[in-house]
Amino acid sequence: MKVENRSFERVEDLKNLGKTLTYQNSIQKEMKSRWKSGNICYHSTQNLLSSIKIKIYRIIILPIVLYGCETWSLTLREGRRLKVLRIGC
After folding, report:
1. Which residues of 7-26 are buried (b: 16+ CB within 10 A; e: fewer)?
2. N vs C: which end of the chain shows fewer Cβ within 10 Å?
3. Hey, where are the domains in the chain?
4. CA distance 48 to 55
């Protein structure tokens, strides 16, 4: 296409202000692009989320579960369950 001696080429899609526009006004490419961006963001923060979960587990959940455990008289089975709980953190 030419406008005032300038030529413009036709493209299948265009990313503008973070949104994918297509010449057919279809949203499939936009949706695919958003899913891809979301997955990239999720996977890039996976280590951070994992370390936060571990900290929450150790600081909040474990003390709730083990509150008063010093006075418990445990069977072998219960002892194993507690050991599994400790290994989980």
Report:
1. eeeeeeeeeeeeebeeeeee
2. N
3. 2-44, 51-88
4. 11
Entry field: residues in the chain = 89
Structural tokens at position 8: 């413009």
Distance of CA 67 to the CA centre of its chain: 32
Per-residue pLDDT of the chain (89 residues; tens, 9 = 90+): 778 888 888 888 787 777 777 777 777 777 777 788 888 888 888 888 888 888 888 888 888 877 887 777 888 888 888 787 766 55
40 within 8 A of 34, measured Cβ to Cβ: no
Residue given tokens 């979301």 in the structure block: 38
Dump the DSSP string for 4-59.
TTEE----SEEEETTEEEETT--SHHHHHHHHHHHHHHHHHTHHHHHHHHHHHIII
pTM of the predicted structure, to 2 decimals: 0.49
